[in-house]
Amino acid sequence: MFSQQQNGVLWTPTSRRLEESKISNFISKLNLKDVVDFSSLYHWSVEHPEQFWRTAWEECRILGDFDLTTDTVFKTGLDFRSSRWFPKARLNFAENMLWRRGAEQAITFYGEEQTVRKVSW
Fold first, then answer.
1. How distant, in Å, are the alpha carbons of 13, 16, 67, 108 from that of 29?
2. What is the mean pLDDT of each run of 10 residues along the chain (121 residues)?
3. In the 8-state DSSP scheme, what is residue 90?
4. Contact call for residues 75 and 98 (beta carbons, < 8 A)
5. Are 105 and 89 contacting, i.e. CB atoms less than 8 angstroms apart?
6. Cβ neighbours of residue 98 closer than 8 Å, sequence gap 6 or more
7. Which of 21, 35, 64, 109 could make a disulfide contact with 117, Cβ separation 3.0–4.6 Å?
8. Are 120 and 106 in contact (CB under 8 A)?
9. Is 73 exposed, middle or buried (0-12, 13-18, 19+ CB in 10 A)?
10. pTM of this structure
């Protein structure tokens, strides 16, 4: 539901939509007592970046050359720009974007002129 409210919130998902979301699924798979919603997930990810990014790599089913058990996930640099995530990882962007197949909906486009277009994998 879209609306312009006083507090600037344009849309709020239903509780069912929240429960069925990818982020809720990710939180439940982490199975951590202190991570129960997006805010606590954010704080946990900042406090435990190595564990968070290992889990994200696995959950997102990223295809690439990277050993989750031994390779370094995050290498701290002098500043943010010189820091590196997955420094030894090698992957093909196109392979990761195009690996799925089937009639399941992948993208829904909503145009400004009320055009709606759905594209399958």
1. 21, 18, 20, 27
2. 64 92 93 93 93 92 92 91 93 91 91 93 88
3. B
4. no
5. no
6. none
7. 109
8. yes
9. buried
10. 0.70
